[in-house]
């Protein structure tokens, strides 16, 4: 059954994670995604363990449901080919900063001239009109600039990066929502448009949902920072034989937890009797919670808390996710046979659709695997393709 984006063609001129993960999701949902790569390929082809050169684990994680075409955009014929592909596309994404895009002649005006219905998405570190507009950026830079890394200081005493590429992936979700909104607008009006997705602004918006806090008001009522989230004792708690996440939240949860714990004294403690009083005493409350959890083993707690509907769960490792009962029952981990890379594991599409489920239609492409196919579809004749091959403006998989 076709996915909800069946019939949408996407040109993916991005590298690393932010753009490729977004376009992979578009592909999962049915879009025809054409990954445009430089002659050396996406950087992630060389990242992580690999069975074959150019097919690293990092690349495999973000590039299923795509076709790969090589175009050297430093050559005029490569840029001309990209514009010709764009003439028949619905969406084009790139992650060139504004100045390099303009130097290459790949700004919005160039694409609008060949396809006024095109949704043109540019994603990079900082909104172009600001003083940081042409600065280079990677995930760590944006974690620092957005205030995210400083949040870790509340726990470890100094700034730390979150150990996942959260800035890239958060911005990738902004790309997705922006593409879909622009496609809806085009459906209604026939108009394409330029969309800018800056990483810093995307992550600041993400961080400040809860942390704008007292600075929501002018003048501020309190400082920025949601106290519960910043609490030093907010953590998975150690039991007698492991760790659990135990998260009573509502008044009912806390009353139930104190009853299960055999702590009637805390049921009427004025510091913990309401949401407001708990928040004012959150460090003390969470420290007490940790002491209580340490008195029993994990299975005892889980049985009692799950029976009482108090939120709690085990703490998975990366490795234990592969055998997690929930993920096993839902078939989240997919096993596929790749024609060159052998047996691979990959995650399922997280969302399910009753009418238009996406699927894994194409496995990750070798560099230039579809160059000739895509160029022919765009109307290039064999002589033109041969000339591009000879000049290095394109290449095909060996």
What is this structure, in a nutshell?
By secondary structure, the protein is of the alpha/beta class. It contains 19 helices and eleven strands.
Write a structural description:
The chain is α/β, with parallel strands linked by helices and 398 residues long. It has two domains: 9-206 and 330-391, Crotonobetainyl-coa:carnitine coa-transferase, domain 1 (Rossmann fold, 3-Layer(aba) Sandwich); 237-314, formyl-coa transferase, domain 3, CATH 3.30.1540.10. The chain contains 19 helices and eleven strands. The protein has helices spanning 18-28, 57-62, 76-86, 98-103, 108-114, 139-145, 148-151, 153-156, 166-189, 199-211, 227-230, 251-261, 264-267, 275-280, 282-293, 298-307, 325-329, 371-377, 382-391, and strands at residues 9-13, 32-37, 66-70, 91-94, 119-124, 193-198, 237-238, 243-246, 312-314, 333-338, 342-347. The strands form three sheets. The chain has a six-stranded parallel beta sheet with strand order 3-2-1-4-5-6, sandwiched between helices. A three-stranded antiparallel beta sheet has the order 7-8-9, with helices on one face. A two-stranded antiparallel ribbon has the order 10-11. The longest helix is centred in the middle third of the chain and has 24 residues, at 166-189. The protein is elongated, with a radius of gyration of 25 Å.
